[in-house]
Design brief:
The chain is of the alpha/beta class and 343 residues long. Helices cover 36% and strands 26% of the residues. The protein has helices spanning 11-27, 59-65, 82-91, 107-120, 129-132, 134-145, 163-167, 181-192, 282-296, 302-327; strands spanning 3-7, 36-39, 53-56, 71-75, 96-99, 123-126, 151-159, 195-202, 205-207, 210-212, 217-224, 229-235, 242-249, 252-257, 266-271, 274-279. The longest helix has 26 residues, at 302-327.
């Protein structure tokens, strides 16, 4: 059994990862052993320190408690700091990593991450619980069965109000492409295969006189190698949460509603008007699967490289989308968001 080392006790580390780890062990007591060790130089500043977690201010001190041969490291720091954290972990000898999405903040950093990955022989799993979900498995089964004919298009809606975090200057997510879209982009690549960017748009977040550039909404359009067209829209100023994928086939439509937050793990699948509701704790399932793979699948197995390549492609496509918007900030690819009145 492996032991978790969480780097970063913010919303992701203290909230999502730790909760899912505990749920996974409740269901399968042998999946990992405790206690959980964490690295955070300012514990409790962003989220309360959970009970039962041994917190250290530095990786050096954490390594004395949990050496690399026993650890699975959860990298839960913002994308802007991802490369430096990965380099420090590699230098300390850690090789088995679970990394929050996206894998890197841009193409340049992705090249550096790839160099670390190849030089140190990392076994690296990027948090991708949408593709790992039971709902995604149902969609893949529907596509593969041919029951509704050929898949023609995918439309993903991924909205959530995110004003407080986006207004923080130290949030670590430079654009709306970096917040929610890596989840849905990984999903559509796993469903429809490789793709190229055909269009992209960004808007600013505006509340009264306050402006956060490029953190309002994002839109990405793709053409997959098999001819499927995808459109992903994520609005961080939306009044309500929505996580939905609509798959249009030759002879029917499937609508997948993913869990809107960690408050409820029920999902819904509607295939031509026949709706089904079922539980799907995707992050717990993802972590359980990742720990099992660390215990059983050697680093030279090609599945590790294939998974890394998929998430490197996510970074490439997001980087291309940002470049689309940067190249034409006054044109059709960049739009001003409606101004929200501040009170």
């Amino acid at each position: 059994m492996r032991q978790p080392l969480i780097v970063g006790l913010g919303r992701s580390g203290a909230g999502l990862h730790l909760r899912a780890l505990r749920t996974a062990r409740d269901r399968s007591p042998d999946v990992w052993r405790g206690p959980v060790v964490a690295v955070d130089p300012r514990p409790g500043e962003r989220a309360p320190v959970p009970d039962g977690v041994t917190v250290t201010p530095s990786l050096e001190q954490a390594r004395a408690l949990l050496p690399p041969d026993r650890a699975v490291v959860h990298v839960c720091t913002p994308p802007a700091t991802r490369l430096a954290v990965l380099a420090e972990l590699c230098a300390a000898g850690y090789r088995d990593l679970i990394v929050e999405k996206p894998l890197a903040a841009g193409a340049g950093e992705q090249a550096a991450v790839t160099e670390l990955h190849d030089r140190h022989g990392l076994r690296l799993a990027v948090v991708a619980h949408w593709p790992a979900s039971a709902l995604a498995d149902r969609l893949r089964e529907l596509i593969g069965s041919g029951r509704l004919g050929r898949l023609l298009s995918i439309d993903v809606t991924q909205h959530k109000p995110r004003f407080t975090r986006s207004l923080r200057t130290d949030d670590g997510h430079p654009t709306a492409f970096d917040v929610e879209m890596p989840h849905s982009l990984g999903l559509v690549l796993s469903l429809a295969g490789p793709a190229e960017t055909t269009g992209a748009r960004l808007t600013d977040l505006r509340i009264g006189e306050t402006v956060r550039p490029r953190l309002g909404s994002a839109r990405l359009e793709l053409l997959h190698a098999n001819g499927v067209r995808t459109r992903i829209v994520s609005d961080l100023t939306a009044p309500v949460r929505e996580r939905k994928a609509v798959l249009v086939f030759e002879h029917g439509t499937a609508v997948a509603h993913f869990a809107p937050s960690d408050a409820d793990d029920h999902v819904q699948l509607d295939v031509d008007g026949r709706r089904e509701v079922f539980r799907d704790d995707a992050l717990t399932a993802f972590l359980h699967r990742a720990y099992t793979r660390f215990d059983t699948v050697p680093a030279e197995d090609p599945s590790w490289a294939a998974n890394f390549a998929l998430h490197a492609d996510v970074v490439r496509l997001l980087d291309e989308a940002k470049q689309h918007c940067a190249d034409d900030t006054a044109g059709a690819r960049y739009e001003e968001a409606p101004r929200v009145a501040a009170r």
